[in-house]
Specification:
CATH topology of the largest domain: f41 fragment of flagellin, N-terminal domain
Organism: Stenotrophomonas maltophilia (Pseudomonas maltophilia)
CATH architecture of the largest domain: Up-down Bundle
CATH class of the largest domain: Mainly Alpha
Family: Belongs to the bacterial flagellin family.
Helix content: 40-55%
Strand content: 15-25%
Number of strands: 14
Keywords: Bacterial flagellum, Cell projection, Cilium, Flagellum, Secreted
Pfam family, one: Flagellin_N
Largest sheet: 5 strands, antiparallel
Protein name: Flagellar hook-associated protein 3
Structural class: alpha+beta
Distance between the termini: 30 Å
Number of domains: 3
CATH superfamily of the largest domain: f41 fragment of flagellin, N-terminal domain
Order of helices and strands: HHHEEEEHEEEEEEEEEEHHHH
Shape: rod-shaped
């Protein structure tokens, strides 16, 4: 049984073929224009979905890079600020040593007081450093307003104790600048664990120049006093007033009592005492205020002069602890800056991998696409030629 192909069927098939080739050609034109193999999700649903996920990952890397830039800026401000604070504390240390000279005149002390006050004001300004965007570096997460303020002559901290953790890489976080409370406030006194002071009523010229643990780990943290019964003999008195030991004092030698080493210079008088207690904490501004108070104290008598010397020695210890805090804080910031460098390397490596995968999945092979375009264009022209020839063919034309 023979089958016949009608003219209309041939016509429709030819039109369909040309439309298909035209659609293919149009799709190739879009690919060439965009440079992408995937013009729409239907081209490759799996690849298109994967590409969206990769784009999001790249956008996340860009966001992390922005975060890293912001944190790096703030940590940089922290480093520069604390370097300046450290320089100021070195100057305060020099001034305190200078003030310990008994021959210093009242005018000289007044000059020192003026400079210490200027340094204190400079410290306050540095503690309120901002990052250039209106956010204060040392305010913790409460960084919209200056974290430090002078109220009734005392500097108070108005930030919070929270240190931000910022994502700067995939599953990688760094800490933002330290809260000001961890840098300028709550600085331990003495050697950081134990502290001491001379009694206010001492009449001799004994000065406590240093106090520290003796390395035996035998100090139990309980306070006690070293009370002189003569110029060379002393007794150890616990917090309840009980005598727990005795000893002999020799100028220039350290006293080692209950796991604590005390260095007392000069000649204590009978009845003089020096107390030992666990270190407390003091803010850097209070240390400046105490130094100013010591410099302004009366020194008309030997007892007053000795009291000032003890206050200055205490200030020296506090300044040393404050300087150590600056060093520790700078080290902490440096560790975060190093972590930022490592995170940058990680982001770069991840970005290259993601972009390479995206390129393989989505980027057009122009040589192949142009070859296909030429092939489809030629095929379309051939189909159009054949269709044109078919239109001119009919039975009447054959009968002529």
């Amino acid at each position: 049984m023979s089958s016949r192909i009608s003219t209309s069927m041939m016509f429709n098939q030819s039109v369909s073929l040309m439309m298909a080739k035209q659609a293919k050609l149009s799709h190739l034109e879009q690919q060439i224009a965009t440079g992408s193999k995937i013009v729409s999700a239907k081209d490759d649903p799996v690849a298109a979905g994967t590409a969206v996920g990769l784009d999001r990952s790249l956008a996340a890397l860009d966001r992390m890079k922005l975060n890293a830039g912001n944190v790096q800026n703030r940590l940089g401000v922290q480093e520069n600020t604390l370097a300046q604070v450290n320089d100021l504390m070195a100057r305060v240390n020099d001034l305190t040593i200078q003030a310990s000279n008994p021959a210093l005149s009242a005018a000289d002390k007044k000059t020192l007081i003026t400079e210490v006050n200027q340094i204190r004001d400079g410290l306050l300004s540095l503690a309120n450093a901002d990052d250039g965007t209106g956010r204060y570096v040392f305010g913790g997460t409460n960084d919209g307003d200056p974290p430090f303020a002078k109220i009734n002559g005392k500097v108070v901290y108005r930030g919070d104790q929270t240190q931000r953790q910022v994502e700067v890489g995939p599953d990688t976080y760094v800490r933002d600048a330290l809260p000001g409370s961890e840098i300028f406030m709550r600085i331990p006194t003495g050697d950081g664990f134990v502290d001491g002071s001379a009694a206010a009523g001492n009449t001799g010229n004994g000065v406590l120049t240093n106090i520290t643990r003796d390395g035996s780990d035998s100090w139990n943290g309980q306070g006690f006093s070293v009370r002189f019964t003569t110029g060379t003999q002393y007794e150890v008195v616990d917090g309840a007033g009980n005598v727990t030991g005795t000893g002999t004092y020799k100028a220039g030698d350290d006293l080692e009592v209950n796991g604590v080493r005390l260095r007392i210079t000069g000649a204590p008088a009978a009845g003089d005492s020096f107390s030992v207690q666990a270190a407390s904490s003091r803010d850097i501004f209070a240390t400046m205020d105490n130094l100013v108070a010591a410099l302004g104290a009366d020194t008309g008598t030997t007892a007053q002069m000795t009291a000032q010397q003890n206050q200055l020695q205490s200030a020296l210890r506090d300044v040393a602890r404050a300087s150590e805090r600056m060093i520790d804080s700078r080290a902490a910031g440096g560790a975060q800056l190093k972590a930022l460098d490592n995170a940058a390397d990680m982001r770069e490596a991840n970005g290259v991998t993601l972009k390479t995968t995206l390129s393989q999945m989505r980027d057009l092979d122009y040589a192949d696409a142009l070859s296909q375009y030429q092939l489809q264009s030629t095929a379309l022209q051939a189909a159009q030629t054949i269709f044109s020839q078919m239109q001119s063919m009919s039975l009447f034309n054959k009968l002529r």
